[in-house]
Known about the structure:
The complex is a heterodimer.
Chain A: E1 6-16, E2 22-32, E3 36-40, H1 47-54, E4 62-67, E5 70-72, H2 77-82, E6 85-88, H3 100-105, H4 114-131, H5 147-160, E7 165-169, H6 177-192, E8 196-201, H7 204-210, E9 213-218, E10 221-227, H8 233-241, E11 259-269, E12 275-285, E13 289-293, H9 300-307, E14 313-320, E15 323-324, H10 330-335, E16 338-341, H11 345-349, H12 356-360, E17 371-372, E18 375-376, H13 378-391, H14 408-420, E19 426-430, H15 438-453, E20 457-461, H16 465-471, E21 474-479, E22 482-488, H17 494-502
Chain B: H1 3-30, H2 35-47, H3 50-75, H4 83-99, H5 106-135, H6 139-159, H7 193-210, H8 212-222, H9 224-229, H10 234-261, H11 272-282, H12 287-311, H13 316-341
Helix pairs in contact in B: 1-2, 1-13, 2-3, 2-12, 3-7, 3-10, 3-11, 3-12, 4-5, 4-6, 4-10, 4-11, 5-6, 5-10, 7-8, 7-12, 8-10, 11-12, 12-13
Amino acid sequence: MSKHSNILEMRNISKRFPGGVVANNDVTIEVRQGEVHCLLGENGAGKSVLMSILYGLHHASDGEIFLRGEKVKIASPKEARNLRIGMVHQHFMLVPTLTVAQNVILGQYPAGTVLNMIPEVSQKLVELGRRFKLPVDPGALVMDLTVGEQQRVEIIKALYHGADLLIFDEPTAVLTPKEIAGFLDFVRHLRDEGITSIFITHKLDEVIAVADRITVLRDARKIGTVLAAETDPSELARMMVGRDVLMKLGDVRHDVGEVVVKINGLSANNSRGLEALSDVSFDVRAGEIVGIAGVSGNGQSELCLALTGLLESTSGSIQIDGEEIARLLPRGVAEKGVAHVPEDRHKLGVILPFSISENMVIHQFRKEPFSKMGRLLKKNISEYSRALTTEYRVRMRDTEQPIGDLSGGNQQKVVVARELARNPRFAVINQLTRGVDIGAIEFLLKKILEARNKGTAILLVSTELEELFAVCDRILVMSGGRIAGEFDGGRENLEEIGMLMATDVAS
Amino acid sequence: MRYAETIKSLGAPVLAIAIALAFGALLIEVAGFSSVEAYSEMWTGIFGSMRNFSEVLLKATPLILIGAGLAISFRSGVWNIGAEGQFYAGGMVAAVVALQMEGVNAWISIPVILIAASLAGAFWGGIAGFLRARYGASEIVTTIMLNYVAIILTSYLVTGPLMEAQGLFPQSDRFPQETQLPRILSGTRLNIGIYIAIIAAIVSWYIISQSRRGFSMRAVGASPDAARYAGINVNKNIIYSISYSGALAGLAASIELIGVTKRLFQTISPGYGFEGIAVALLANNNPLGAIFSGALFGALRSGAEIMQIGAGVPSVLIFIIQGLVIISVITLGTIRAYRKLRPED
Lengths: 507, 345
């Protein structure tokens, strides 16, 4: 009943996880035979989950999948492979100590017959490599290969098993700029060979460069499918980051207090050793909220970590009230009056098994009134915690229950309460509203404004433009690890900011 | 205020022990013995007389000390499998120091021995802690390796430099009388070591749950990244926690040596260091709980001997029961964690 030009249709797919998280909400996509189809969306928009459902890693709560015109049920990756679907994961599924050929046949055939097959498999891999312009050395050990080469092995592995529908999960995230260019060429070549690709990404320039059609997801829903030839980065950016309009919560202020934070020529590497932050300079004044806009992965995370002592910068200086803090450890930075609401709440922001009270004092437990002569004063800690959770309207049973029991929004309230209660000189706030419901968003933004009005210098990093427009006095756009532009905090700059976010100044 | 939760936390271990004893009974029957007779002999072995019960406490002493120490290490996210080696390290130093104490007042000699042995155990654990903190070497591997080093070093000492004057057996000379740990029950070998163990467990509980240091250690154990974010020195706390557990293992060795064996020999530990891991796990890494789980394992060990003599059941069956206790505890814990993860469906 489906059109023959569609190799794949996923209809009305919904995925609800236990605990109430909805990852896909009634999403329908159609992928045409032989096209490069991009799935575009912010982190957490539901792209990866949708593709995991297609590959049998997750099971949809609702919805149907039609493959090559037939309705299919895909219970496991093995069934997906039998249906000629291949997936190249962001984290490669290769055994480093085996050779390329061994990895390709791993787990596919009965034991005993495998070793005899190596020469034959190697031969076929070389042929495939020639056909797809994807040269591999079947005898090389995977651990000796570069990341780009390992990715090639993943692709050729899928092709070897006959896949003609390939899913790439953020394939360029692990590559260097030069490798990215080569990879995009290769994807075009796959299309010429009749292979259909679904390409998950949140990078607009890549989408424009390689896609035939683009489906945008946001907040678990499909926003729309557009032809690459008929769209432009700013439209895509709007589709991707737009959300319900927030009211402007505070007036934009100019020429506020004295300069508190002076950042000069700051550079830093990401965890893979690539430069993620390049020569960034700006100031934040007392009583001012400076927003950092940008598509995620453009150096914002590294900026926040470097500012708070969690990531060593490679060059540049950070001054708080004229004092250099770039070489200090996290505790030293905190003692200079720097607060930090981290982006990754579960990894950094809270200690999940700890109680709400304990989480409230993780910076301050060493000092009175929270401890004395090496002993924790639990009564004082609880009292402090009760006062703050009341002020922030944290919904909970009592302050001694593990913070892991709370919803994401309530956890974030605890983090923000903890950080702002220290009356910081400078607050670094990254993704304040991630995983937080609308009601709590406005509440938290008002608290940020309160802190601003008390004279705190605030850096608010967000991928949600609406959040920035709601409270920022100035907005800086980050792209490719650099500051690409500076704007007044008014909404009138939306178009221009969206455009700037979409262009990668580094490449 | 939180009695309900305390009782709840006791539920799992008690259930685990019941399950293990039930399976144990089955095994005893399968092996061709009467489980009723075997368990009643075991009961006698544990509670039958003051003497029997004192042996239980004697065997529990090192287990409580080691279990309480390991509980702190595990809570800090440091998987110290080397309490056995730290016990031997403590034992060697205790012997060397004790042999020098001829004519020294017991008020001086005993504390000096206990402290020296604790330091030795702390040092032995600290090596693995340092390697983890400085080079990221897995403490699971290094502590296991250091076990062999300490055990073989002990063998070398008792067959070489410290071998007894007569040169008959691979053991040291008898320690001087001044080093004998005071006995607390006449006619038995029970000594003040049990008091020391209980006090050490209470101190350990205070450290981990009531002190500033414990807060840091628990933070490091629960989430090293978040601990770093909070300005806690992760490496320092790793070294502290493993050294602390090493110190209690070393202390346990010195109590065993000057309280019971009076000599250093090759097998001063029948596996206390490994059984201590089970003691800590059964106590859910709560040092206070280690007092009870240590006593339980001491009882099983002591009762097993009587069971073997009285009912003819091989005491190895007791080791199976001990193993079953641990498997049950872990299984019940896993089930609980699983239920918590998936409240519905």
